[in-house]
């Protein structure tokens, strides 16, 4: 049992050669990892390093939807919270376009404590 805990702790500390925070080790941000890298490189979605405070659609990610690419807002904490809870609704509010769409699926991370954890993780990247 002790060996298993030590191995699990080591695996939670380093993923793909990158140190991760305790928040990631708890599992909430693993949902993000399906589509995003936690550095500047891209997967299905853009890399999330530096996302807090960045202008929407401002990286070299080539697959942004047109409404995200047009941007017009920054990824501050309030906007990230709205996006994590309901990206399909948030894109309409953030862009000011009632017909705006995003390619990102709704993640339904709506509890303030869960959002706090994700935002703290993103700030630590």
Secondary structure class reads: mainly alpha
- Provide mean pLDDT, rounded: 82
Calculate the terminal CA-CA distance, rounded to whole Å. Answer: 32 Å
Which residues form runs of ≥5 with pLDDT under 50? 1-21
CATH topology: Cytochrome Bc1 Complex, Chain D, domain 2
The Cα radius of gyration reads: 16 Å
Order of strands across the widest beta sheet?
A: 1-2
How do the helices and strands follow one another from N- to C-terminus?
A: HEEHHHHHH
CATH-level-2 architecture:
Orthogonal Bundle
Estimate what percentage of residues fall within beta strands.
under 5%
Return the domain count.
Answer: 1
Shape: globular
Tell how many strands the DSSP assignment holds.
2
| Portion of residues within helices | 40-55%
Task: Based on the model shown, name its key terms.
45% helix; Cytochrome Bc1 Complex, Chain D, domain 2; mainly alpha; 7 helices; single chain; 125 residues; globular; 3% strand
Q: Would you spell out the secondary-structure blueprint of this structure?
A:
Blueprint: H1 2-13, E1 14-15, E2 18-19, H2 22-26, H3 30-33, H4 66-70, H5 77-85, H6 87-95, H7 112-123
Helix pairs in contact: 5-6
